[in-house]
Amino acid sequence: MEGKRVVIVGGGIGGAHAAVFLQNDFDVTLVDQKEYMEILWAELRSMVEPTFSNRSVVYHKDYLTKGKLVTSAAVDITETEVHTADGTRIPFDYCIIATGHRYNLPQSRDERIKLFEEDNDKITAANSILVVGGGPTGVELAAEIAVDYPGKQVTLVHKGPRLMEFVGEKASRKALSWLKSKGVDVKLNQTVDLEGKDADGCYETSSGESVKADCYFLCIGKPSGSGWLKESMLKDKLDGKGRLMVDANLRVEGHANIFAIGDITDIPELKQGYLAEKHAGVVAKNVKVLTSGGGEQSKLAVYKAAGADVALVSLGRKDGVAQFPLVTISGRIPGIIKSGDLFIGKTRKQLGLRP
User: What is the value of pTM for the model shown?
Assistant: First the structure.
């Protein structure tokens, strides 16, 4: 293991955990265009409570105590090097790609926290708020606002026939019922023209309905963070959704020393942070096996996909909807599991930080 170089591209949940798992045994370099790692599932809580971000936005240097950090975007990869936008060429024996989805976030931690404060100012100043998108992000944001600002009119517009279409119908109905109980006006099977706000401060939906809103938040899916790979040697390893195709050991197909973890993989499961953490554990074990002289296929850890039937969606600070195989639970139990602290303390502890 000594002297082996591991380059991790992407400083999200998966990349951060991989760095922590490997930095004591390898020469680890983390490549990320930001100086911080953000626990993204806390983003919506931070919009209604900006001080929450003090714990969910973490300097890479705080957990990367033995590795090196290159604060620049990756732009290319070869069999032995990662190239970055600032002209750096970083050699590796093993590479772990963890660039997830593309987010337009500032490089500075202070600037990121400032954005949360600005979002909170928008929410605080508004009497009516429009949330566009009924996936988990839109549902959780509408719930956070409804709980923390019960006097504000929240409207959620979703183009699909039901909320959170990635979960079963029962979980979707429970989320809809909860939002309505908090006074959220949910409009399904509709889109909204965000460029067409009239003189009265109203937006028009595709069904001709008028939605009053002092501000809006767009909560739709983010593109894959694989744009930097589309002209690289791995371009043929991207599927139609821009995700890297990996084998059972989480190696990029056809490349024994390049792994991929987290949202950028084509693993048929929901893209969730705790799964990226599991990917990181599998890859860390496999890198250690390969460098210990025991690289036989039978000794490599195999990742088993979680499937598409496991989900946990928080609804404000105390409630939530949890879906597990064959079971859907709603109310205070799943809320306590996730909604109170949003697993921030647990995640920080896993990274070697104070909860």
Answer: 0.93
* Residue 25 per-residue DSSP state: T
- Using DSSP's 3-state secondary structure scheme, residue 218 falls into strand
Give the angle subtended at the CA of 27 by the CAs of 21 and 30, to the nearest 5°.
Answer: 70
Per-residue pLDDT reduced to its tens digit, 246-269:
999 999 999 999 999 999 999 998
Q: Is residue 247 classed as helix, strand or coil in its secondary structure?
A: coil
Q: Where in the chain does DSSP place strands (E)?
A: 5-9, 27-32, 36-38, 57-59, 68-71, 74-77, 81-84, 89-91, 94-97, 128-132, 153-157, 185-187, 202-204, 210-212, 215-218, 258-260, 311-315, 319-324, 327-331
Distance between CA atoms of residues 215 and 232, nearest Å:
40
- Residue 46 CB-density burial (10 A; 0-12 exposed, 13-18 middle, 19+ buried): buried
Rounded to an integer, the average pLDDT of 129-158 is 97
Residue 195, C-beta contacts closer than 8 angstroms, at least 6 positions apart: none
Domain 5-33+72-103+222-305 falls in which CATH fold? FAD/NAD(P)-binding domain (3.50.50)
Structure tokens at 31: 């490549």
Cα dihedral 279, 281, 287, 289 sign: negative
Considering only the top CATH level, what class is 109-221+309-339?
alpha beta
Nearest residue to 313 via CA among 141, 116, 145: 141
| Cα separation, 185 vs 245, whole angstroms | 40
Report the pLDDT averaged over residues 61-74. 98
| Pairing mode of beta strands 185-187, 153-157 | parallel
**Identical fold at 5-33+72-103+222-305 and 109-221+309-339?**
yes
In whole angstroms, give the CA distance from residue 310 to residue 322.
8
Domain range summary for the chain, segments of one domain joined by +: 5-33+72-103+222-305, 109-221+309-339
**Does position 333 have pLDDT exceeding 50, yes or no?**
no
